[in-house]
Structures are given as structure tokens and as C-alpha cells.
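Sequence and fold:
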Amino acid sequence: MGGGRELLVDLNGKSERAFEEQDVCVRAEVGDTVLLNTTGVRLGLGTGGVHFVVSAWEKAGLGNHDATELPGHIMKLRYTPLQRAVHAVEEQDHPLHEHIVAHESLDHVPVVICELHSMVPAVAMSLQYELKQSGQAPCRIAYVMTDGAALPIAFSKTVRALKELGLLSGTVTVGHAYGGDLEAVNLYSGLLAAKHAMEADVIIVAMGPGIVGTATKYGHTGIEVGQVVNAVHTLGGDPIVVPRLSFADPRPRHQGISHHTLTALGQVALAKATVPLPNLTDEETAQIFKQIRSANLHDKHQLVGVSGRSILDAANHFQVPLRTMGRTLQEDPAFFFAAGAAGEWTSRLIKKPLRHHAVRSSAGALLADKN
């Protein structure tokens, strides 16, 4: 996974934050003049509201990467000044290429589909915590990052923390997202790589930090939740959707069950998914079920009731920060209970004896060596 770091830059006499991708830029040092993309800060964006280092001005052109010497011929950020070649797992000279050729099915692996990046740690922590509490071995979770939001996976501090704790076994960046342990051309081959090259017991799919929204029914990147359901169904996986719930969001369209979830599952998803719903107050539950009935989701998908409360203990145990739209677990419990419920539900599907993880294939060993 490509690295990145946060810098403090002096901009017009003010100290401001900037993100530097270390595999794109020549490393800036104290005193260097840097070229910044300041659009996110100027627009007052949330997750993307930091400056991005384009280059260290005096060191422009002094990069240490010679593209002709690197493997890979698949371009991401195609036809832009920042296009980059990656060694995609689908390429014939990739050491794990055989796993893409040999497999066309996900073999019923559970695939947890999240709209927001902030759901990922809650799902992973709850799932692994539930297994630990029942005396089971940790499972292998692969995270497939789409290109619906941030494109460099290095921008995610969450992914870095989850990998350091062993809660994620590996990452796949698909589409124009980049920097994962494996690169894939699209979601379908990325899912197959997660299952067969990474030997995942569970796959989590979500965009990176940030989301595009316009307060319209279809004008948001959360629409991809329905598209991922379709892809997982096509490949023979078990789609499990984390509903976006909140009673703390000030925007009416995101209160109860978000209109993003209602649209993605009601109009975009063409196949059945399992939707775990956490235990909430009677009033909150009544509102959510009223919205579900209005969208006919109960006729189209499998709704299951799950506690969701394990995220409370899991968050204390693993200590990975939880925050969505600036709100903590305590400030927006319904949001994180929904993600926790998905983790709990999935843990029931994949419980295996400890010896399951004692044997590793050559593919798993190769990936471990890469990291």
C-alpha cells in the first residue's frame, strides 16, 4: 500500500494541513516550497478539506520512479497529468494472475457492503470481536476499495490502523482507486482477487474517505451500494448491506434510514441482499420500518434483527477511532450499531475451527511477503 503523510505548511502566513503522497511526490523537507492543490479547503469540504501536495517546487522532475522499470501496464487516472501505471492482478505477468483465470465464482463468501468509509472499522471490529469472544480464530477480511470517493488508499488512516491490528488481511483497490495490496481493473475482478488471491473469509466493500452527494435521489456515489449488490450476486457471493442509519444527522433526508440506502436497495439493486437492522428504541424502530415499508424493501430484501451492541465492547477492545460526519459513536449510536449489526451477523456465517488458519496456500504466502 502506498504511503502518505500529513504536513504542516505555511500558506500566506497561516499554518495549514496538507497531505503528501510519498509514492507520487519527491519527499518534501522542512524549508521546501511546495505546490498545493487547495480546492478542497476553498470549497469547505469535510473529509477532503485538506490541501494536497502536488510537488516540492525546487525538486520538480527529480522523482525516483522510472516508469519503464516498474511492472504493470494498466493505467489509473487515465489521460490525466497524474495518470499512473499499476501492476493489476488481471495482467498475465502478475504472480497471482492464475487465481483470476481459474475462478469465476465467489463461492458464497459473505460480502459486507458499506456506503461510507466510516462503516468499515465498525464492521471489521465487531466481526473479529464476536469471533474472539466465541473462542474462534480471527477471520481473513479483505477490504475492496471502490473509486466512489478518495482514490488513494493511503489517505485512509483507518485502513492503516486496521491492518496494523491485523483486523484486515489485505486490500484491493478497484477502478481508479489505487495503492492497495492488489490493484484490479474493476469491481468484479477485484472481488475475485479478494476471495481467491487473498483467501478472504469475508470481503468488505466500500469507497474511500469522503462521498459525493447533491441532495438528489440519484446524484450521489452511495448509489454504488446497489451496483455492488448486483455484482456480488452475479459472482455467487452473499451480499450483506449495512443500512445508513442516523438520528443525529441534522439533514431530514438522512434521518432514520438514509434516502441513499432506500434508493440503492429499492431502485438500483436487482438482487436480494441481507440487511441487518440493530436493536434501537421503539420510536426509532417504528420510523425505520415506516420508511422501509414505503420503499418496499421488506418485499425485496431479507431484513434480519441483530443487536449491534457488540461495537461498544469491540471499540473499547481494539481502540480504532470511530467517527462519521464528525460525530462519534456516542453522538450517533444508530449509525455504528447498524455497522456493528452487520459484523455480528457475518460472524455467525463464517465461524471456523482454529486450525483453519494454520494452512496457507502459496497465494496467501506471496501476499504476506508483499506486505
Remarks:
- Residues 153 and 159 are 8 Å apart (CA to CA).
- The longest helix spans residues 333-349.
- The chain has twelve helices and 18 strands.
